[in-house]
Amino acid sequence: xxxxxxxxxxxxxxxxxxxxxxxxxxxxxxxxxxxxxxxxxxxxxxxxxxxxxxxxxxxxxxxxxxxxxxxxxxxx
Length: 76
Hints:
The chain has a domain at about 1-40: YefM-like domain (YefM-like fold), CATH 3.40.1620. The protein has three helices and three strands; from the N terminus they run βααββα. The protein has helices at about 5-10, 15-20, 45-55; strands at about 1-5, 25-30, 35-40. The N and C termini lie far apart (about 60 Å). The model has no long low-confidence stretch (mean pLDDT about 85).
């Protein structure tokens, strides 16, 4: 992760945004204090697919075709 001062960030904004978009996170500081961290956007589709794949190994599907023994409240 690259750390830069706010003045340097302002002077070269486009360059740093291109670096962040390429995958390099950038920390922006002012007087030694962290102001922001610039990072590339997360691919929502890939993240959701990864979550589903991790859940697939632990999911349990029970008998979904046999009728239940009791009536549901919605039936009355």
